[in-house]
Amino acid sequence: MTTNTTPQTAVAKQGPAPAALLYAVIGGSLLTVVSAFLAWTWTADFPGDLTYYGSPAPIQFLSLVAGLLTAAFALSALGTKGLRWLTPTGARKPVWILALGTLAGTWFTVIAIAVVLGGFAHLEPGAYVALVGSLIPALAAYKLPDDSHKAAPAKQLPSWAEILLITGVFALGLYVITFGIDTDDKEPQLFVTYLIIVGFAAFALLKAGLFDRLGTLTAKHRQVTLLGTAAAAIAFPFIQQSGDTYTLIAVNILIFATVALGLNVVVGLAGLLDLGYVAFLGVGAYAAALVSGSTASAFDIHLPFWAAVLVGALASLIFGVVIGAPTLRLRGDYLAIVTLGFGEIFRIAMGNLDGTSGPDITNGPNGIPNIPHLELFGWNFGESHNVLGITLGAYANYYFLMLLVMALVVLVFARAGNSRIGRAWVAIREDETAAEAMGINGFKVKLIAFALGATLAGLAGTVQAHVNTTVVPENYVFAGPVPPNSAFLLAAVILGGMGTIRGPILGAALLFLIPAKLAFLQDYQLLAFGIALILLMRFRPEGLIANKRAQLEYHDDTADQAPTDLATAKAGA
Fold it and tell me: Is residue 144 within 8 Å of 21, Cβ to Cβ?
């Protein structure tokens, strides 16, 4: 007689996680916390100065937070009242992931100290305490039995409590992002440790089921979520302590993310592989530069910004139609090769329109410099302004402008993706032959996607021209160490999650911020970039933020295979 046992029943028979292992996790984590208050080296030559007792440096603070998180999740696994909500889908995976993150971040810091200072002799007892303290939880958590299970329905909270919880999460997220962006460029070890611990912590929260519960809350309170997102984004320049340095990085991230969203229309929704997409950004930037009153412009035109935006977007639209009309009858690799060629043609043409190799329009490889700053309603974007007693630098003005542009692009993407034409794009992406057999005009639908994506990129290009105050052909190559370029744009869409809104934004932020903060690894960035993509394709091919529709299709396929698997299991029994 064969008895069917569900995964939940199997977990129940295993019993709770061994208390001794969890106590070891908690003890080691607290030891890591204590080590943060001790000196890790005797000399201040290591960036960040880890010589103080009782006052953790920022890099020690990261180990402290990681240790506290690991201990909190271990206490949740023990059933501690008030902490059980931390592990709705099981405690073993999140505890182990957090312990690994603490181990990786702490050991990286200690090894970096030894490498920078020239040996382990420069370590103080606090560093050895940190090494041991972070190792114990990782070893103990590895031995914990698997207790994964489907999350039970969350306890209903009053609406005010749910809104307060969403607000707290947004405030915490803003602090974490700001901490990473504000890390000193002279302390690259701090940013690497930050990436390690934040990455492992995010993965642990995902495995614990907390992101799913937060998603349920934000979907329930959609208006509050939108307001919270807007408030957090607006508050960013006001909490910067280092002036415009990192606000400029934020502006460039928004520009990069806006262009990535435009490419997401072409690649993520319509399934068209475009390897020359950065050319559309260049068309918008050059068009705006030529009509915005630059002293190097071949045309004596100075249009207001709203008109320059229209010119840049319209120029990119026309360029997209001109490229798409003869090429979109191709598919797959052939389309990718042709678009790559058009992207290179644009860059080379801009470099040759210098009055020698061609007409004197773009000033050739020297580009178009001296693009004046924007001025709207008497507000000069090139000057600092005092708002609510806080001095905001010039780039904060462009930051707020790009927030508006981003909001517009997100609205267009969301409306287009959920419309009739958006469903036609998805049908073309999944199976173009079947879609055309059902009456969809494949060429027309793809051309609309190409034109819309080009227009959104041109819109971002007009702002980029004024932010950089110059436009040169070298900014619009297929691949290079500095984004945005076509390769990084495509990677941002794939890394973040094709067909989603948050995915390309997250991917663009990571791919712009990490190279900017780790400039000392410039010679190895493309190597690290390739390794990251390989790992992503292996362990999470749907991207960091998966498309819900793709997830449903995957689960449906798995469900279809389940009866066969069950029959096989019964036969084996």
Answer: yes
pLDDT (0 to 100) of residue 549: 59
Quickly count: other Cβ atoms within 10 Å of residue 568's Cβ. Answer: 10
pTM above 0.85, yes or no: no
Q: Which residues pair with 292 in a beta bridge?
A: 302
d(CA 266, CA 448): 9
Q: What angle do CA 469, 470, 471 make, to 5 degrees?
A: 140
- Percent of the chain at pLDDT exceeding 90: 15
Averaged pLDDT for residues 450-472: 88
- Number of CB atoms found within 10 A of residue 41's CB: 21
CA atoms within 13 A on the CB side of 94: 29
CB 453 within 8 A of CB 277: yes
Distance CA 319, CA 464 (A): 18
Residue 386 bridge partners (DSSP): 391
What does residue 521 show for φ and ψ, rounded to 5 degrees?
A: -100, 25
Query: Could you tell me the CA-to-CA distances from 531 to 35, 403, 526, 536, 545 in Å, in that order?
Result: 33, 32, 9, 9, 19
Structure tokens at 529: 């970039």
Contact in structure between 206 and 355 (CB atoms under 8 Å): no
Nearest-10 Cα torsion for 147, 152, 155, 159? 120
pLDDT digits (tens, 9 = 90+) for 367-422: 888 888 777 776 777 777 777 767 777 788 888 888 888 888 888 888 888 888 88
Which of 248, 384, 258, 250 is CA-nearest to residue 312?
Answer: 258
Please give the structure tokens belonging to residue 123. Answer: 């370590």
Report the distance separating Cα 395 and Cα 237, nearest Å.
9
The residue with tokens 């997409």 is 277
Q: Are 96 and 141 in contact (CB under 8 A)?
A: yes
Alpha carbon distance 453, 433 (integer Å) = 23
Segment holding 244, helix H or strand E: none
Grouping H, G, I as helix, E, B as strand and the rest as coil, residue 473 is helix
Residue 137 structure tokens: 């939880």
Question: If you search the block for the tokens 């409306």, which residue do you land on?
Answer: 415
How far is residue 103 from each of residues 107, 131, 484, measured CA to CA in Å?
Answer: 6, 8, 34
Mean pLDDT computed over every residue of the chain: 82
Q: How many CB atoms lie within 10 A of CB 266?
A: 29
Q: Which pLDDT belongs to residue 481?
A: 62
Helices within 328-384 (DSSP H only): 332-352
Using the Cα atoms of residue 344, residue 347, residue 353 and residue 356 in order, give the sign of their dihedral: negative
Higher per-residue confidence, 563 vs 483? 483
Q: What is the pLDDT of residues 484-531, one digit of tens each?
A: 778 888 888 888 888 788 888 888 888 888 877 777 666 777 777 778
Q: At what angle do helices 278-291 and 245-264 cross, to 10 degrees?
A: 120
Residues 6+ apart with CB under 8 A from 211: 205
The residues facing 375 across adjacent strands are 380
Q: What is the phi/psi pair of residue 456, to 5°?
A: -65, -40
What stretches of 481-524 show up as alpha helix (H) in DSSP?
A: 486-496, 502-517
Count H helices and E strands in the chain, helices first: 21, 4
